[in-house]
Design a protein that fits this description.
The chain contains 9 helices and 12 strands. It is of the alpha/beta class. β6, α4 and β7 (159-164) form a beta-alpha-beta unit. The chain is elongated. The protein starts with a strand and ends in a 14-residue tail after the last helix. Bound molecules: NADP nicotinamide-adenine-dinucleotide phosphate.
Protein backbone atom coordinates (compact mmCIF):
# COMPACT_ATOMS: atom_id res chain seq x y z
CA UNK A 1 0.00 0.00 0.00
CA UNK A 2 1.44 3.44 -0.88
CA UNK A 3 2.37 5.80 1.94
CA UNK A 4 0.58 9.15 2.01
CA UNK A 5 2.80 12.21 2.33
CA UNK A 6 1.08 15.49 3.21
CA UNK A 7 2.91 18.64 2.17
CA UNK A 8 2.00 21.32 4.72
CA UNK A 9 4.04 24.43 4.04
CA UNK A 10 3.67 27.74 2.21
CA UNK A 11 1.40 26.92 -0.78
CA UNK A 12 3.80 28.61 -3.22
CA UNK A 13 6.39 25.93 -2.39
CA UNK A 14 4.20 23.01 -3.49
CA UNK A 15 4.88 23.34 -7.25
CA UNK A 16 8.60 23.56 -6.43
CA UNK A 17 8.73 20.54 -4.14
CA UNK A 18 6.20 18.27 -5.83
CA UNK A 19 8.40 17.20 -8.77
CA UNK A 20 11.48 16.92 -6.56
CA UNK A 21 9.77 14.78 -3.93
CA UNK A 22 8.17 12.64 -6.64
CA UNK A 23 11.54 12.05 -8.26
CA UNK A 24 13.51 11.28 -5.11
CA UNK A 25 10.79 9.11 -3.60
CA UNK A 26 10.78 7.08 -6.83
CA UNK A 27 14.57 6.72 -6.51
CA UNK A 28 14.21 5.38 -2.96
CA UNK A 29 11.74 2.76 -4.21
CA UNK A 30 9.05 3.88 -1.75
CA UNK A 31 5.60 3.86 -3.31
CA UNK A 32 4.00 7.11 -2.18
CA UNK A 33 1.13 9.47 -2.84
CA UNK A 34 1.98 13.14 -2.37
CA UNK A 35 -0.52 15.89 -1.82
CA UNK A 36 -1.58 19.02 0.03
CA UNK A 37 -4.90 17.51 1.16
CA UNK A 38 -5.61 14.13 2.73
CA UNK A 39 -7.96 12.92 5.42
CA UNK A 40 -5.75 13.32 8.51
CA UNK A 41 -6.21 9.69 9.53
CA UNK A 42 -4.76 8.59 6.17
CA UNK A 43 -1.46 10.50 6.46
CA UNK A 44 1.83 8.65 7.09
CA UNK A 45 4.29 11.55 6.90
CA UNK A 46 3.93 15.34 7.07
CA UNK A 47 6.45 17.54 5.28
CA UNK A 48 6.13 20.55 7.50
CA UNK A 49 6.78 24.26 7.77
CA UNK A 50 5.02 26.52 10.28
CA UNK A 51 3.57 28.73 7.55
CA UNK A 52 1.49 25.76 6.31
CA UNK A 53 -0.78 26.50 9.27
CA UNK A 54 -0.97 22.98 10.71
CA UNK A 55 -1.24 23.21 14.50
CA UNK A 56 -3.24 20.20 15.71
CA UNK A 57 -1.72 16.81 14.95
CA UNK A 58 -4.20 14.85 17.09
CA UNK A 59 -6.41 13.76 14.12
CA UNK A 60 -3.33 12.28 12.39
CA UNK A 61 -3.80 8.87 13.93
CA UNK A 62 -1.45 6.86 11.70
CA UNK A 63 1.31 9.45 11.40
CA UNK A 64 4.86 8.03 11.48
CA UNK A 65 6.93 11.24 11.49
CA UNK A 66 6.90 14.97 10.86
CA UNK A 67 9.73 16.13 8.62
CA UNK A 68 10.49 19.83 8.99
CA UNK A 69 11.63 21.95 6.06
CA UNK A 70 13.13 24.39 8.55
CA UNK A 71 16.31 23.96 10.62
CA UNK A 72 14.81 25.95 13.50
CA UNK A 73 11.95 24.02 15.10
CA UNK A 74 10.96 26.32 17.96
CA UNK A 75 7.45 26.74 16.54
CA UNK A 76 6.68 23.00 16.68
CA UNK A 77 9.07 21.43 19.22
CA UNK A 78 6.70 22.08 22.13
CA UNK A 79 3.48 21.13 20.29
CA UNK A 80 1.77 18.70 22.70
CA UNK A 81 -0.47 17.27 19.97
CA UNK A 82 2.61 15.88 18.21
CA UNK A 83 3.52 12.46 19.61
CA UNK A 84 5.60 11.00 16.75
CA UNK A 85 9.25 11.68 15.83
CA UNK A 86 10.08 15.17 14.55
CA UNK A 87 13.07 15.64 12.25
CA UNK A 88 14.54 19.06 11.55
CA UNK A 89 16.16 20.15 8.30
CA UNK A 90 19.87 19.63 7.84
CA UNK A 91 20.43 20.47 4.20
CA UNK A 92 23.74 20.86 2.42
CA UNK A 93 22.44 23.87 0.47
CA UNK A 94 21.14 25.58 3.62
CA UNK A 95 24.46 24.98 5.36
CA UNK A 96 26.51 26.28 2.44
CA UNK A 97 24.34 29.40 2.22
CA UNK A 98 24.76 30.11 5.93
CA UNK A 99 28.52 29.60 5.73
CA UNK A 100 28.76 32.08 2.87
CA UNK A 101 26.61 34.65 4.69
CA UNK A 102 28.56 34.35 7.94
CA UNK A 103 31.97 34.48 6.24
CA UNK A 104 30.85 37.51 4.23
CA UNK A 105 29.72 39.46 7.28
CA UNK A 106 32.76 38.45 9.33
CA UNK A 107 35.00 39.70 6.50
CA UNK A 108 33.04 42.96 6.36
CA UNK A 109 33.92 43.63 9.99
CA UNK A 110 37.41 42.17 9.84
CA UNK A 111 38.44 44.25 6.83
CA UNK A 112 36.61 47.39 8.01
CA UNK A 113 34.88 47.55 4.65
CA UNK A 114 32.29 50.14 5.68
CA UNK A 115 34.95 52.80 6.14
CA UNK A 116 35.71 52.87 2.43
CA UNK A 117 32.36 51.82 1.01
CA UNK A 118 30.29 54.42 2.88
CA UNK A 119 32.75 57.28 3.36
CA UNK A 120 34.48 58.72 0.29
CA UNK A 121 35.45 62.04 1.85
CA UNK A 122 38.73 62.82 0.09
CA UNK A 123 40.74 61.88 3.17
CA UNK A 124 43.63 59.53 2.39
CA UNK A 125 43.90 57.55 5.62
CA UNK A 126 45.72 54.24 5.13
CA UNK A 127 44.46 51.76 7.70
CA UNK A 128 45.33 48.25 6.55
CA UNK A 129 43.47 45.56 8.44
CA UNK A 130 45.29 42.87 10.41
CA UNK A 131 45.58 39.34 9.09
CA UNK A 132 42.80 36.89 9.92
CA UNK A 133 45.01 35.01 12.37
CA UNK A 134 45.13 38.16 14.51
CA UNK A 135 41.29 38.36 14.58
CA UNK A 136 39.34 36.45 17.20
CA UNK A 137 35.97 35.19 16.04
CA UNK A 138 33.61 33.30 18.31
CA UNK A 139 30.63 31.23 17.27
CA UNK A 140 27.95 30.31 19.80
CA UNK A 141 26.41 27.05 18.58
CA UNK A 142 28.46 24.36 16.87
CA UNK A 143 25.69 22.39 15.20
CA UNK A 144 25.20 21.76 11.49
CA UNK A 145 25.47 25.49 10.71
CA UNK A 146 27.85 26.71 13.42
CA UNK A 147 30.40 23.97 12.81
CA UNK A 148 30.43 24.58 9.06
CA UNK A 149 30.90 28.33 9.56
CA UNK A 150 33.62 27.71 12.17
CA UNK A 151 35.51 25.37 9.82
CA UNK A 152 35.28 27.87 6.95
CA UNK A 153 36.56 30.73 9.12
CA UNK A 154 39.36 28.52 10.49
CA UNK A 155 40.34 27.64 6.91
CA UNK A 156 40.80 31.39 6.30
CA UNK A 157 43.13 31.43 9.35
CA UNK A 158 40.82 33.30 11.71
CA UNK A 159 41.39 32.49 15.37
CA UNK A 160 38.09 30.71 15.98
CA UNK A 161 36.48 29.77 19.26
CA UNK A 162 33.19 27.91 19.38
CA UNK A 163 30.77 27.16 22.18
CA UNK A 164 28.14 24.45 22.45
CA UNK A 165 26.14 22.58 25.07
CA UNK A 166 28.20 19.39 24.85
CA UNK A 167 31.95 19.05 24.28
CA UNK A 168 33.19 19.08 20.66
CA UNK A 169 36.44 18.47 18.83
CA UNK A 170 36.69 20.42 15.57
CA UNK A 171 40.10 20.80 13.91
CA UNK A 172 41.32 24.40 14.00
CA UNK A 173 38.57 25.51 16.39
CA UNK A 174 38.99 26.12 20.11
CA UNK A 175 35.88 24.29 21.32
CA UNK A 176 34.38 25.29 24.67
CA UNK A 177 31.18 24.28 26.44
CA UNK A 178 29.26 24.88 29.63
CA UNK A 179 28.88 28.11 31.63
CA UNK A 180 32.63 28.64 32.22
CA UNK A 181 33.23 27.95 28.55
CA UNK A 182 30.75 30.70 27.65
CA UNK A 183 32.60 33.26 29.76
CA UNK A 184 35.91 32.30 28.12
CA UNK A 185 34.37 32.31 24.66
CA UNK A 186 32.79 35.75 25.05
CA UNK A 187 35.87 37.34 26.59
CA UNK A 188 37.80 36.76 23.38
CA UNK A 189 35.05 37.47 20.86
CA UNK A 190 36.07 40.45 18.75
CA UNK A 191 33.45 39.22 16.29
CA UNK A 192 30.63 37.13 17.77
CA UNK A 193 28.31 34.96 15.64
CA UNK A 194 25.11 33.52 17.12
CA UNK A 195 24.04 30.17 15.67
CA UNK A 196 22.17 28.75 18.64
CA UNK A 197 18.61 27.44 18.36
CA UNK A 198 15.74 29.27 20.07
CA UNK A 199 15.02 27.24 23.21
CA UNK A 200 14.14 27.95 26.83
CA UNK A 201 17.84 27.54 27.70
CA UNK A 202 19.17 29.91 25.03
CA UNK A 203 16.67 32.78 25.40
CA UNK A 204 18.54 36.01 26.17
CA UNK A 205 21.90 34.24 25.92
CA UNK A 206 23.15 37.72 25.12
CA UNK A 207 22.02 39.93 28.00
CA UNK A 208 23.52 42.82 29.97
CA UNK A 209 25.79 40.47 31.91
CA UNK A 210 27.10 38.45 28.94
CA UNK A 211 27.43 41.51 26.69
CA UNK A 212 29.70 43.04 29.36
CA UNK A 213 32.08 40.09 28.97
CA UNK A 214 32.85 40.95 25.34
CA UNK A 215 35.96 42.96 24.43
CA UNK A 216 34.96 46.63 24.13
CA UNK A 217 33.71 47.46 20.65
CA UNK A 218 32.93 43.82 19.73
CA UNK A 219 30.88 43.15 16.61
CA UNK A 220 27.84 40.88 16.77
CA UNK A 221 26.33 38.90 13.91
CA UNK A 222 23.00 37.15 14.63
CA UNK A 223 21.66 34.75 12.00
CA UNK A 224 20.36 32.41 14.76
CA UNK A 225 17.05 33.58 16.23
CA UNK A 226 15.81 36.89 17.66
CA UNK A 227 15.11 35.69 21.22
CA UNK A 228 18.82 34.85 21.70
CA UNK A 229 19.32 38.57 22.37
CA UNK A 230 17.89 40.82 25.06
CA UNK A 231 17.19 43.72 22.68
CA UNK A 232 17.19 46.46 25.33
CA UNK A 233 20.53 45.24 26.66
CA UNK A 234 22.01 45.21 23.17
CA UNK A 235 20.78 48.73 22.44
CA UNK A 236 22.30 49.90 25.75
CA UNK A 237 25.58 48.16 24.89
CA UNK A 238 25.60 49.74 21.41
CA UNK A 239 24.89 53.20 22.83
CA UNK A 240 27.68 52.79 25.40
CA UNK A 241 30.19 51.61 22.78
CA UNK A 242 30.55 48.22 24.50
CA UNK A 243 29.28 46.72 21.25
CA UNK A 244 30.69 48.47 18.18
CA UNK A 245 28.21 47.23 15.61
CA UNK A 246 25.60 44.51 15.15
CA UNK A 247 24.30 42.76 12.05
CA UNK A 248 20.93 41.24 12.85
CA UNK A 249 19.06 38.89 10.51
CA UNK A 250 16.44 37.54 12.92
CA UNK A 251 14.12 39.20 15.41
CA UNK A 252 11.55 38.44 18.09
CA UNK A 253 8.90 39.94 15.82
CA UNK A 254 9.26 39.43 12.07
CA UNK A 255 8.93 41.43 9.91
CA UNK A 256 10.82 43.82 12.21
CA UNK A 257 8.32 46.69 12.81
CA UNK A 258 9.25 49.88 10.91
CA UNK A 259 9.50 51.89 14.15
CA UNK A 260 11.86 49.44 15.86
CA UNK A 261 15.01 51.26 17.08
CA UNK A 262 17.25 48.79 15.26
CA UNK A 263 16.25 50.22 11.87
CA UNK A 264 17.46 53.72 12.69
CA UNK A 265 20.46 52.83 14.81
CA UNK A 266 23.69 53.97 13.08
CA UNK A 267 25.56 50.94 14.38
CA UNK A 268 23.06 48.27 13.40
CA UNK A 269 22.58 46.53 10.06
CA UNK A 270 19.19 44.85 9.70
CA UNK A 271 18.78 42.08 7.15
CA UNK A 272 15.32 40.53 6.59
CA UNK A 273 15.88 36.90 7.67
CA UNK A 274 17.83 36.06 4.55
CA UNK A 275 21.02 34.56 6.00
CA UNK A 276 20.19 31.22 4.44
CA UNK A 277 17.19 29.20 3.40
CA UNK A 278 16.32 25.59 2.76
CA UNK A 279 17.23 24.75 -0.85
CA UNK A 280 14.52 22.53 -2.37
CA UNK A 281 16.87 20.56 -4.65
CA UNK A 282 18.91 19.27 -1.73
CA UNK A 283 16.23 19.40 0.99
CA UNK A 284 13.85 17.15 -0.97
CA UNK A 285 16.52 14.44 -0.92
CA UNK A 286 16.84 14.74 2.86
CA UNK A 287 13.07 14.42 3.30
CA UNK A 288 12.86 11.38 0.99
CA UNK A 289 15.78 9.66 2.70
CA UNK A 290 13.94 9.96 6.02
CA UNK A 291 10.76 8.51 4.50
CA UNK A 292 12.84 5.66 3.08
CA UNK A 293 14.31 5.07 6.53
CA UNK A 294 10.89 5.09 8.14
CA UNK A 295 9.58 2.52 5.68
CA UNK A 296 12.70 0.35 6.04
CA UNK A 297 12.44 0.39 9.84
CA UNK A 298 15.73 2.31 10.12
CA UNK A 299 16.19 5.19 12.57
CA UNK A 300 15.31 8.66 11.26
CA UNK A 301 18.15 11.18 10.90
CA UNK A 302 18.22 14.75 12.30
CA UNK A 303 15.72 13.98 15.03
CA UNK A 304 14.74 16.77 17.40
CA UNK A 305 15.17 16.18 21.12
CA UNK A 306 11.77 17.50 22.18
CA UNK A 307 12.87 17.95 25.81
CA UNK A 308 15.82 20.15 24.76
CA UNK A 309 13.77 21.88 22.07
CA UNK A 310 16.25 21.46 19.20
N1 LIG B 1 18.68 33.17 9.69
C1 LIG B 1 18.48 32.12 8.91
O1 LIG B 1 18.26 32.29 7.71
C2 LIG B 1 18.54 30.76 9.50
C3 LIG B 1 18.53 29.65 8.64
C4 LIG B 1 18.62 28.38 9.20
C5 LIG B 1 18.75 28.22 10.58
N2 LIG B 1 18.78 29.32 11.39
C6 LIG B 1 18.93 29.16 12.84
O2 LIG B 1 20.17 28.51 13.11
C7 LIG B 1 19.98 27.66 14.24
C8 LIG B 1 21.06 26.62 14.33
O3 LIG B 1 20.88 25.66 13.29
P1 LIG B 1 21.70 24.29 13.28
O4 LIG B 1 21.18 23.50 12.17
O5 LIG B 1 23.16 24.54 13.36
O6 LIG B 1 21.21 23.68 14.68
P2 LIG B 1 21.81 22.43 15.48
O7 LIG B 1 22.55 21.53 14.54
O8 LIG B 1 20.70 21.88 16.29
O9 LIG B 1 22.92 23.08 16.43
C9 LIG B 1 22.61 23.83 17.55
C10 LIG B 1 23.88 24.12 18.30
O10 LIG B 1 23.56 24.93 19.43
C11 LIG B 1 24.07 24.30 20.61
N3 LIG B 1 23.20 24.56 21.75
C12 LIG B 1 21.88 24.31 21.87
N4 LIG B 1 21.44 24.64 23.11
C13 LIG B 1 22.52 25.10 23.77
C14 LIG B 1 22.73 25.59 25.08
N5 LIG B 1 21.72 25.69 25.97
N6 LIG B 1 23.98 25.97 25.44
C15 LIG B 1 25.00 25.88 24.55
N7 LIG B 1 24.88 25.43 23.29
C16 LIG B 1 23.65 25.05 22.91
C17 LIG B 1 24.09 22.83 20.29
O11 LIG B 1 24.98 22.17 21.17
P3 LIG B 1 25.28 20.60 21.07
O12 LIG B 1 26.05 20.45 19.76
O13 LIG B 1 26.11 20.32 22.24
O14 LIG B 1 23.95 19.91 21.03
C18 LIG B 1 24.55 22.85 18.83
O15 LIG B 1 25.96 22.97 18.76
C19 LIG B 1 18.56 27.09 14.00
O16 LIG B 1 18.00 26.61 15.20
C20 LIG B 1 17.83 28.31 13.47
O17 LIG B 1 17.27 29.00 14.56
C21 LIG B 1 18.66 30.57 10.87
Amino acid sequence: MPVNVLFSARPALWPVYEPLLTRYLAETGVEARLGTEFDPDQVDYVVYAPNGGLLDFSPFTRLKAVLSLWAGVEKIADNDTLTVPLARMVDHGLTQGMTEWVVGHVLRYHLGMDRHITIQDGVWAPDAPPLAQERKVCILGLGALGEAAARALASLNFTVTGWSRTAKDIPGVNCLHGPDGLRDALSQAEILVLLLPDTAATENALNAETLALLPKGARIINPGRGPLIDDDALLDALNAGQVGHATLDVFRVEPLPPDHPYWAHPNVTVTPHIASETRPATAAQVICENIRRGEAGEPFVHLVDRALGY
